[in-house]
Amino acid sequence: MASALPPPDPAQERALRRLLWLVAVGFFMQTLDATIVNTALPAMAASLGESPLRMQSVVVAYSLTMAMLIPATGWMADRFGTRRVYVGAIALFVLGSLLCALSSSLAMLVAARVVQGLGGALLLPVGRLVVLRTFPRERFLQAMSFVAIPGLVGPLVGPTLGGWLVEAASWHWIFLINLPVGVLGALATLRFMPAPAPMERVRFDTGGYLLLALGMVSLSLGLDGLSGLGLRQASVLVLMVFGLASLTAYWLHALRKPYPLFSPQLFRVGSLRIGLLGNLFSRLGSSCMPFLIPLLLQVTLGYSPAQAGMMMLPVAIASMSVKRVTTPLITRHGYRRVLVVNTGLVGLTMASFAFTTPTQPLALSIVQLAAFGAVNSMQFTAMNTLTLKDLGPGTASSGNSLLSMVQMLAMSMGVAAAGAVLAAFTEVFGGGGVQTLQAFRATFGCMALMTLASAGIFWQLAPADSRTAPAASEPDVPESG
Questions:
Q1: Please, which pLDDT band fits residue 7 given cuts at 50, 70 and 90?
Q2: Selected residue with higher pLDDT from 163 and 234
Q3: pLDDT digits (tens, 9 = 90+) for 94-120
């Protein structure tokens, strides 16, 4: 007769639960700060003497910094140790939050958001790595499901909390609330996070990383320079060409390096190739919505920050509710059909905001926001699982990091592009109340067309790539944009 398994050690179980809560709180801080700023942008603009229509650089700086640092997170954790890097991530996040609250100009605020983004970029990947190395394999999925819950709660409460803090106190408090949480988190990390065993150090591809980072920064700054930075057209052109040249140079560099950051061999997997390109171009359009909608509500329709935050609740609630039906739909119809149809629905719901009027019934607005949240959430789930489903054990980690980087880069470029389009239409229509509403309508229409165009990418899925595979799971990336 087989002997019974020994009962779990209560002390070890308590230590594992504490570790999960620690990683979950770090994830919550990161996802909360990715969304809490959006409803506070008009109040920030008034305080700093800026136009609320030119505040997209505050959002771009955070997401672009995260995209830049994600490729280096695994190497940093191996080189310096997960506990040390996690404490450093919290410290950077808290320092960036304090600097944001102390900012007296837009330039200072953008620089502070870069510091905050450096910390935020490390919180999720390193926390996930700690869980992977601490929990036995049969409990990893359950552990990561627990950690993922704050990633859904953060975007749910972020816009509402941000609007309430702006009215109850000031916009500075959307950053100051991170300070006590961060200090407690750092102390808890030193107390409860295990010190890992030394890892084999792989030489970091510094040249490839610099080419990749320069390419991403140049392209995003080029888009943002069309409106927010006031760069002349020639400077924007130089930045865009420099960015494309850097990304091309990275590709050639990766082809001849034995251990590049992201091997070109990954792109031999058809589902990953189409999933990444679809993620990039689809999110370029849809990721602007959490930035544009609170601005539309406050700048042109007279909503208060708290009211604008409350109006984002239908988006988050519908996003969470639709998760249950997404997998059965993909299983029944396949990735190709679901993504082509759903991309069209995302574009159409975005285009519906081009018909917004000041006299529109509240119920219609709620239905409109909920519909966008539902189809956008389904889009993210389908795109993410498509990208990773055919990767083997040796390429899953690299593919997941590449997907996370592409997602954050698309969020950054999408907000920058929306800001540029909005600035251009504001100049065309003028700066009055009705004219500003017309500029918003035209911007929603243009970004919707950009999203609709990405359906052609998913149309290229081969029948074999369109079939479902249970091997991969959706990465824990906040669906805030």
A1: low
A2: 163
A3: 999 999 999 999 999 999 999 999 998
Domain map (residue ranges) of the chain: 13-197, 206-260, 268-481
- Cα–Cα dist 347/468, whole Å: 24
Sequence-distant (6+) residues with CB within 8 A of 54 are 45, 227, 228, 419, 423
Locate 346 and state its tokens.
């995302």
Length of the chain: 481
What's the chain look like in SS3?
CCCCCCCCCHHHHHHHHHHHHHHHHHHHHHHHHHHCCHHHHHHHHHHHCCCHHHCHHHHHHHHHHHHHHHHHHHHHHHHHCHHHHHHHHHHHHHHHHHHHHHCCCHHHHHHHHHHHHHHHHHHHHHHHHHHHHHCCHHHHHHHHHHHHHHHHHHHHHHHHHHHHHHHHCCCCHHHHCHHHHHHHHHHHHHHHCCCCCCCCCCCCCHHHHHHHHHHHHHHHHHHHHCCCCCCCHHHHHHHHHHHHHHHHHHHHHHHHCCCCCCCHHHHHCHHHHHHHHHHHHHHHHHCCHHHHHHHHHHHHCCCCHHHHHHHCHHHHHHHHHCHHHHHHHHHHHHHHHHHHHHHHHHHHHHHHHHHCCCCCCHHHHHHHHHHHHHHHHHHHHHHHHHHHCCCCCCCHHHHHHHHHHHHHHHHHHHHHHHHHHHHHHHHHHCCCHHHHHHHHHHHHHHHHHHHHHCHHHHCCCCHHHHCCCCCCCCCCCCCCC
Tell me if the pTM is above 0.85.
Answer: no
Q: Tell me, what's the pLDDT at 229?
A: 56
Distance CA 417, CA 372 (A): 20
pLDDT over 90 at 155, yes or no: no
Identify the CATH class of 268-481: mainly alpha
Question: Does 1.20.1250.20 match the CATH number of domain 13-197?
Answer: yes
Residues 103-137: b if buried by 16+ CB within 10 A, e if exposed: beebeebbbbbebbbbbbbbbbbbbbbbbeebbee
The two domains 13-197 and 268-481 share their CATH topology (first three levels equal): yes
How far out from the chain centre does Cα 62 lie? Answer: 10
What's the alpha-carbon Rg for the chain, to the nearest Å? Answer: 22
Task: Tell me what pLDDT residue 467 has.
Answer: 66
Residue with tokens 């179980």: 13
